[in-house]
From TrEMBL, chain A:
Protein name as catalogued: Na+/H+ antiporter subunit C
Subcellular location: Cell membrane
Similarity field: Belongs to the CPA3 antiporters (TC 2.A.63) subunit C family.
Keywords: Cell membrane, Membrane, Transmembrane, Transmembrane helix
Primary location: membrane
GO cellular component: plasma membrane
Organism: Ancylobacter mangrovi
Pfam families with a match to the protein in the record: Oxidored_q2
Membrane-crossing segments per the record: 6-21, 28-49, 75-98
Membrane topology: Multi-pass membrane protein
From TrEMBL, chain B:
GO biological process: proton transmembrane transport
Presence of keyword DNA repair: no
A single cellular component GO annotation: plasma membrane
NCBIfam families from the UniProt entry: 2a6301s01, PRK12648.1
All copies of domain Na+/H+ antiporter MnhB subunit-related protein, residue ranges: 821-944
Membrane topology: Multi-pass membrane protein
Location in or out of the cell: Cell membrane; Membrane
Organism for this UniProt entry: Ancylobacter mangrovi
Record protein name field: Monovalent cation/H+ antiporter subunit A
Pfam families on file: MbhD, MbhE, MnhB, Proton_antipo_M, Proton_antipo_N
Chain ranges of the NADH:quinone oxidoreductase/Mrp antiporter transmembrane domain: 130-408
Transmembrane spans: 6-24, 31-52, 80-100, 112-131, 137-154, 166-189, 209-234, 246-268, 274-295, 302-320, 326-350, 371-393, 417-440, 461-483, 503-527, 580-599, 611-628, 635-655, 661-682, 703-724, 762-780, 824-842, 848-868, 888-908, 928-951
Length: 113, 970
């Protein structure tokens, strides 16, 4: 499981980075989305992977961190997902505005010579 | 009042006055001048009061702890030397304030002038009464700063701006050197305290760091006191209003370097290094300044070069290293301040009353302003060293010291000749000042008709000239005791035998004075014809221009080098920058691993499930596909990214993170809708500009990018795998798991962390979301689509054409028919999704859900309406007001946080209780729930705002295309 997840994270990150380096704004926005998946999974995996672990407490029983899913990376990633959405929205609008003003969707605001 | 606190009051008073003056109305000339003058007078009176304390052996001290662990305290210290300087600063400050009241024109913003002047006065007092060297440097730099502001006071004039900039750059760079030098002293002594430094003379002189410390401190002193080769800023500073020249650039600020050299004289002087650095610099400055002063055409220029020359004289005296020379230096500092301040004021009066300072145009003024002429003549005679005046006495002390033997070197032996030569020059330029301006034929063609100035404008000069006379005639009764106190604080107990008197008998110095006087008169008459010809600048050394080198250095550093660096290192293109950043990220991840045996962890890990492998194989295919398609097939890429997102969702569920899966799924939906809305505004895909085969450079670039991408992917895969297979010990998680229910009252630990334990972080996060949404809104309000995107999309045009062709159909019918059933369902879904949102919100504290998820869910309910019915229909039927949602949400969250203050707890402390409601059952009632409500409202508002702001753009475009079509029909 760990191996599969690690490879997945690596491929997501590589695809995202490749797109970040491309000249068209749309490629960059897609790349950012892929990279944020990879980073979110990466942070999440810091809590180690546990299958079928209870994510919530049962009142009345002793709370055992060894059994429960690690909540800290989850809380971090939850925040990251929402912020990622805000970032995507902002970037999208910036790229649309830039495209409207410069007439091109190149990341530099003008076509390469 | 105790002497210590009085010292603090004396220091703070000018700064307080500066603040008050800064807020006075622009025309409050009298108020500001009265304020500045009375602060000077009060400061002087305090100093008179403090004199008895200072005259005792011990200096007056006042200390406040600031950073005691670093040996930095706020310390004030007043001894004889600082008393003398402080009295000069306060006393002349008061006189200059009175003078400036009449000098400054009512059209200028005079209160600002006095504000700067007072602030300068405070900074200068800070320099002389600092008991800590670091603190001294701080005030030192402040004086540079206020000198800059005062020189540039008439900022509409270019010479003033340039002079101000030059003075600031030179004196502040010197200040930086001084700072480092002081650091070195602190390192040698182990303290910055002035008393301790003064007690460590042998330690400093024998230290290995003595040379660098000496060099750096002298750089500071030489730049400030306009010593060769840094002297050129002072003549340029003459663009300042004359009160400033009189106060800063003759009496006080330029003496700061002298003060520092006197202050550190007991611990740094007396070595060969000191002698061979300070004496040549002082001598060069003395001769060069005096020589250049003869040939100035500007009245203030003459005085500026004369000031440079006198500063050189004092530096030279300090360089000699003998106690008697130090006595002469201190005495001459005082005398020079008195006569030069009065001369500057006289020059200012001439400028004020005639409208020019050019000596080629001025002559015969004595008949128009006899009083001023007399006063200026006395002061100039003092400058020339004529007997019965104070300048004579200290100059004779200087001659005596020049004759005396110090090191026996050639330089030392030749000093009497150089000194006499400088004396000749000073007599010549003083004569030029007097004879050229006040005597000769009446002036012709002056801008104004000259006359005596107002009574009180002359008063400061009268007072200063009176001092010149009394000190010159009866020095022992007037300044004798004050001087003795100052000298004792520098030299200590072994006071040398000196006599302050007018007449010492027929001695060699007297002969030198006599030679200088006769030689000066002869030289003046010899040069007269040349001077009358009106040539600008001194002969022989005309080409020696410090400011030319300065300008060249400045241009090289701030323009040429900057340009070169920009050309080599800078790029305006994003891709190379990204490439560098990402390559650096790979390197930063790999470098720490070099040299270590790095392996993956030892844990066996969970058994591989085939289904999981299949899911991730799909995910990987989606990611690679998206990367491949994003350029030409945007829609396909969007679908594929959605696929990758879904794989992430599934993984979260699989690995026991239902909260994440839920949020990820919802955000996925919203993001996809958002990007779909954006797609419409992007240009049609362009064919590959390179044709079938791209050029080699492009291939190389792609190859590099591919390598970086694979490298980063590999690093992340390796890191996550190595970490996942190592044991996990998180004390942080343990705390949250164990306390979530008992402290936060919720069983959903993730939610409790977000709204309770780390509520402040969440607060920051929703603020970010809020700002992002507002920025999107703001950007879209001024959105201008590209011209080729304004027309309706092709599909819409085909549908509309079909509707137009059929007589029974109205435009848009096809679309309506097409979505008939889905639209009905989607309309009905609104309450369903709304209820789901409320449900997710309510259970959030105990089960997966919460404010974020609920907020996005509700916003999806709105978006679905837009998709089903079109923007116009929704905007006609539904008023969402997302800005209010956001505002209310933020207010609720903040108010919840503030609420805990009323109960005496820190911000955002939460309280919880379980309540039992009929039908619904037991529900948690926590203040965190209220906070989560704020989060919920804000997320709804922000998400809806972003989406509908973008959706609204389609209306705008159809409107504009309609109008353009209407034009076509017309």
């Amino acid at each position: 499981m760990e191996m599969m997840l690690a490879i997945g994270i690596g491929v997501f990150a590589a695809s995202g980075v490749w797109l970040l380096l491309r000249p068209r704004t749309y490629q960059v926005i897609i790349g950012l989305a892929l990279l944020s998946y990879a980073v979110n999974m990466f942070i999440f995996s810091m809590g180690r992977i546990k299958m079928d672990a209870p994510p919530v407490l049962t009142p009345g029983t002793a709370a055992d961190p060894a059994v429960l899913a690690d909540p800290v990376p989850q809380a971090l990633v939850l925040t990251a997902i929402v912020i990622g959405f805000a970032m995507t929205a902002l970037f999208l609008v910036v790229l649309l505005a830039a495209r409207g003003r410069t007439g091109t969707d190149h990341v530099d605001g003008r076509e390469a010579e | 009042m105790q002497p210590g606190p009085l010292l603090l009051v004396m220091l703070l008073l000018p700064f307080a006055g500066s603040l008050v003056a800064g807020f006075l109305p622009t025309n409050a000339r009298n108020t500001a001048a009265t304020l500045a003058g009375s602060i000077g007078v009060v400061g002087s009176l305090m100093l008179v009061w403090l004199y008895l304390d200072v005259a005792d052996e011990e200096p007056v001290r006042f200390a406040l702890d600031w950073l005691p662990t670093l040996g930095l305290d706020f310390t004030l210290r007043l001894d004889g030397l600082s008393w003398l300087f402080a009295t000069l600063i306060s006393g002349i400050g008061a006189l200059v304030a009175l003078y400036a009241r009449y000098y400054m024109s009512p059209e200028d913003p005079v209160p600002r002038f006095f504000s700067f002047l007072l602030a300068f006065q405070g900074s200068m007092l800070g320099v002389v009464i600092s008991g800590n060297l670091v603190q001294l440097v701080f005030f030192w730099e402040l004086t540079s700063l206020f000198s800059f502001l005062l020189i540039g006071y008439w900022h509409h004039s270019a010479p003033a701006r340039e002079g101000a900039r030059m003075a600031l750059i030179i004196t502040a760079s010197g200040g930086l050197c001084l700072f480092v030098g002081v650091m070195l002293i602190g390192r040698i002594v182990g303290s910055y305290d002035v008393d301790e430094v003064l007690n460590s003379g042998n330690l400093i002189r024998n230290s290995d760091l003595y040379m660098p410390a000496l060099a750096l401190i002298l750089l500071g002193a030489f730049t400030k006191s306009a010593q060769f080769p840094f002297h050129f800023w002072l003549p340029h500073a003459m663009s300042a209003p004359t009160p400033v020249s009189s106060y800063l650039h003759s009496a006080t600020m330029v003496k700061a370097g002298i003060f520092l050299m006197i202050r550190l004289w007991p611990v740094m002087a007396g070595t060969d290094e000191w002698f061979y650095v300070v004496v040549p610099v002082g001598l060069t400055t003395l001769l060069l300044g005096a020589f250049a002063a003869i040939f100035q055409q500007d009245l203030k220029g003459l005085l500026a070069y004369s000031t440079i020359s006198h500063l050189g004289l004092i530096t030279l005296l300090l360089g000699l290293g003998s106690p008697l020379a130090a006595v002469a230096a201190i005495f001459h500092t005082l005398n020079h301040a008195i006569f030069k301040a009065s001369l500057f004021m006289a020059a200012g009066i001439i400028d004020h009353e005639t409208g020019t300072r050019d000596m080629r145009r001025l002559s015969g003024l004595a008949r128009y302003m006899p009083f001023t002429a007399t006063l200026a003549m006395v002061a100039a005679a003092s400058m020339a060293g004529v007997p019965l005046l104070n300048g004579f006495i200290s100059k004779e002390m200087f001659f005596a010291e020049a004759v005396a033997n110090h090191t026996g070197s050639l330089l030392d032996d030749s000093l009497p000749y150089w000194a006499t030569l400088a004396g000749v020059f000073s007599v010549t330029y003083s004569m030029r000042f007097i004879l050229g301006v006040f005597f000769g034929p009446p002036p012709i063609d002056l801008p104004r008709r000259p006359h005596e100035p107002e009574r009180w404008m002359r008063f400061p000069i009268e007072l200063l000239v009176l001092l010149c006379l009394t000190i010159g005639i009866v020095p022992g009764f007037t300044v004798g005791p004050l001087l003795a106190t100052a000298i004792r604080s520098v030299i200590g107990t072994g006071l040398p035998a000196y006599s302050l008197a007018l007449w010492h008998g027929f001695t060699l110095p007297l002969l030198m004075s006599f030679i200088a006087l006769i030689g000066g008169i002869v030289l003046y008459y010899a040069l007269r014809r040349y001077l009358m010809s009106g040539i600008e600048g001194p002969p022989l050394i005309r080409e020696l221009k410090g400011q030319r080198i300065f300008d060249k250095v400045l241009v090289t550093i701030s323009w040429q080098w900057a340009r070169a660096a920009e050309a080599v290192l800078g790029t305006r293109r994003l891709q190379p920058q990204m490439r560098l950043v990402l390559a650096l990220a790979v390197i930063a991840a790999v470098v720490p691993l070099v040299g270590h045996v790095v392996g993956t962890g030892m844990l066996p890990g969970a058994p591989m499930e085939p289904a999981f492998v299949v899911v991730w194989a799909i995910g990987i295919a989606c990611a690679i596909g998206a990367a491949y398609q994003a350029k030409y097939h945007r829609f396909a890429a969007l679908v594929l990214v959605g696929g990758a997102g879904l794989v992430t969702c599934v993984t979260f569920i699989w690995l026991s993170a239902p909260d994440l899966a839920l949020t990820q799924l919802l955000v996925e939906i919203v993001t996809t809708v958002l990007l779909l809305l954006g797609l419409r505004w992007l240009p049609k895909r362009i064919e590959d500009v390179y044709g079938t085969r791209p050029p080699l450079s492009v291939l190389v670039r792609r190859y590099i990018d591919f390598t970086i991408a694979c490298g980063l992917g590999a690093v992340m895969a390796f890191l996550s795998y190595s970490l996942m297979t190592r044991p996990h010990a998180s004390a942080v998680s343990r705390f949250f798991v164990e306390n979530a229910y008992s402290e936060g009252g919720g069983t959903n630990i993730v939610n409790v962390i977000l709204v309770d334990f780390r509520g402040f972080d969440t607060m920051g996060e929703i603020v970010v979301l809020c700002l992002a949404a507002l920025t999107v809104f703001g950007l879209l309000r001024r959105f201008r689509p590209a011209p080729e995107s304004i027309e309706s999309p092709e599909q819409q045009r085909i549908q509309d054409a079909f509707d137009d062709a059929e007589p029974t159909r109205a435009p848009g019918d096809t679309l309506t028919d097409y979505l008939m059933i889905p639209r009905l369902i989607m309309n009905w879904l609104f309450p369903v999704i709304g209820v789901a949102a409320v449900y997710l919100f309510m259970r959030g504290h105990d089960l997966p859900g919460g404010g974020f998820a609920a907020g996005i869910t509700l916003s999806i309910a709105f978006v679905v309406q837009y998709m089903a019915n079109g923007t116009r229909w929704v905007e006609d039927h539904l008023r969402v007001l997302p800005l209010r949602w956001m505002g209310l949400g933020l207010l609720t969250a903040v108010a919840t946080g503030l609420g805990s203050w009323f109960f005496g707890y820190p911000f955002l402390t939460s309280y919880f209780q379980y309540a039992v409601l009929p039908v619904v059952g037991k529900i948690p009632v926590a203040s965190a729930l209220l906070f989560d409500l704020g989060v919920f409202a804000l997320v709804v508002g922000a998400t809806v705002l972003i989406l509908i702001a973008l959706a609204h753009q389609s209306l705008r475009s159809s409107r504009s295309s309609q109008s353009s079509e209407a034009e076509r029909w017309r």
